[in-house]
# Entry
Amino acid sequence: MLSRNPLLHYVFARMKMAEERGFGLESIKARASDLGLPLPKYSWVNPYLELELYRNSAGAVQTLAPQQLALLSKAERAGWQWIVTKETVIAVEYAAMVKVPKRTALNHLKHFTELGLLVRMGSGPTTQYKVKK
# Structure
């Protein structure tokens, strides 16, 4: 893979602040997960790759659209802070981590899906919810 800015890559590589080309996104995700931070979001906005990094879990809530944020309860905001540290989540796991009953967890996950924050995959007890990038 070619670097978009070879000179900049050379400088960062010499400072031991850059990895081999093509390995950065995986290590960024792994490091964020290790630290309990929201996973980075990246998207292609021609002609650039946009990367969004978070310094803390509250940052993921603050980047939500104002209309989405207004529709989330305090408990849902806390739940969202935890969800964004994962790529996928199931209701039982969400309920345990956020300390809510399973029914409430299902309602939160449904609400996140309706707001376009999650994508539902599967059905029944094995239903997974994937954070929409």
